[in-house]
Write a sequence for this structure.
C-alpha cells in the first residue's frame, strides 16, 4: 500500500472517530435517549447472561402446576410446572434476536432496492417500485400469518416472515434520499472523472444515508419484537424456544386472566412494553440528532 493511500485511510478513520464522538456528545444530552439506551443495555445483559442466571431449564417441569410466586419460584409456575421466571429470562434472547435480525434483514432488503431504484431510474425503478407498491398494498398481518403457517413453526421462519414484509418503508426512504444526493455536485464530479456506478453508490451516496437507515432500523426492531410476540401468541412461534409471546400464549390457554393468576401475564407484558419503550426512546433521540430542523426546534 502506498503512503498516499495509507494517509487517506488514516484520515477517513480519524474523520469517522470524530463523527462518532460528536454523535455521542449530542446523544448523551438527551435524557429520553439515555433512558432508552439503558433499558436496551439492561435487556441485552439479561439475554446474554440468561444461561447462568436462570435457576431452571425453561422447558423442564420443576414444580406443580400453577404454583404462586415463592417456594423457589420467583414468578411461580405455569400449567405444567415450568418455572415462569426462567422462561422469562430465556425469552429475552429469542425476542431480542428476532427483533435485531429481522430488522437488519428488512433494512438490508429495503436499502438495496431503494438504492438501485433511485440511482438507475428508468425500467429498474419502475419494476422495483411496483414490487414495493404491491407489498405496501398487501395487508401485512394476514400476509405474515399466511407465510408463517406455510413455512412452519421456527424462529428463523419468523425472522424471514417479518423481514420480507417490513422492508417497504426503508426502500421508499432510501430511494428518496438517493434521488436527492445523486444530483449533488460532488457526485457529478465523481462521475465526471470516470467513477463507476458501484463506486458512486457505495462511496458517495450510501455513507450519507446510513444515519437515516440506522434510525429506521431502530423502529424496525420495535415492530419486529411486537410482531414476533403476536405471532407466538397466536401459536405460530417455535414451541421449543421460549419467548415472551409464547409465555402469553400459555397464559391465555390456561385462562390465567380469568383465574387471577396475574404473575403469569404481567411480567412478559411488562418486558415487551419496556423493550419497545427503550427502542422507541432511542429512535426519538436519533430523529432529533439526525434531523437539524427538529434539533433547532428543540433548542
Amino acid at each position: 500500500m502506498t503512503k498516499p493511500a495509507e494517509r487517506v485511510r488514516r484520515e477517513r478513520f480519524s474523520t469517522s472517530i470524530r463523527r462518532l464522538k460528536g454523535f455521542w456528545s449530542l446523544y448523551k444530552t438527551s435524557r429520553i435517549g439515555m433512558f432508552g439506551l439503558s433499558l436496551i443495555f439492561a435487556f441485552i445483559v439479561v439475554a446474554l447472561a440468561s444461561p447462568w442466571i436462570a435457576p431452571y431449564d425453561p422447558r423442564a417441569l420443576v414444580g406443580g402446576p400453577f404454583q404462586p410466586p415463592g417456594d423457589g419460584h420467583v414468578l411461580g409456575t405455569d400449567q405444567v410446572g415450568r418455572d415462569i421466571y426462567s422462561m422469562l429470562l430465556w425469552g429475552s434472547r429469542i425476542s431480542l434476536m428476532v427483533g435485531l435480525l429481522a430488522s437488519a434483514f428488512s433494512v438490508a432488503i429495503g436499502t438495496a432496492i431503494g438504492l438501485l431504484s433511485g440511482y438507475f431510474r428508468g425500467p429498474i425503478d419502475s419494476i422495483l417500485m411496483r414490487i414495493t407498491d404491491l407489498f405496501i398494498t398487501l395487508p401485512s398481518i394476514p400476509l405474515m400469518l399466511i407465510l408463517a403457517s406455510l413455512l412452519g413453526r421456527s424462529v428463523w421462519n419468523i425472522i424471514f416472515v417479518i423481514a420480507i414484509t417490513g422492508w417497504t418503508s426503508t426502500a421508499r426512504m432510501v430511494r428518496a434520499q438517493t434521488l436527492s444526493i445523486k444530483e449533488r455536485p460532488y457526485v457529478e464530479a465523481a462521475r465526471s472523472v470516470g467513477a463507476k456506478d458501484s463506486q458512486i453508490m457505495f462511496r458517495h451516496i450510501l455513507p450519507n444515508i446510513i444515519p437515516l437507515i440506522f434510525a429506521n432500523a431502530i423502529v424496525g426492531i420495535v415492530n419486529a419484537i411486537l410482531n414476533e410476540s403476536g405471532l407466538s401468541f397466536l401459536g405460530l412461534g417455535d414451541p421449543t424456544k421460549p419467548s415472551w409471546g409464547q409465555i402469553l400464549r400459555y397464559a391465555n390457554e390456561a385462562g390465567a386472566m380469568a383465574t387471577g393468576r396475574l404473575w403469569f401475564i404481567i411480567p412478559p407484558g411488562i418486558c415487551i412494553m419496556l423493550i419497545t419503550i427503550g427502542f422507541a426512546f432511542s429512535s426519538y433521540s436519533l430523529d432529533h440528532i439526525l434531523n437539524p430542523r427538529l434539533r433547532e426546534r428543540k433548542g
The CA atoms of residues 65 and 80 lie 5 Å apart.
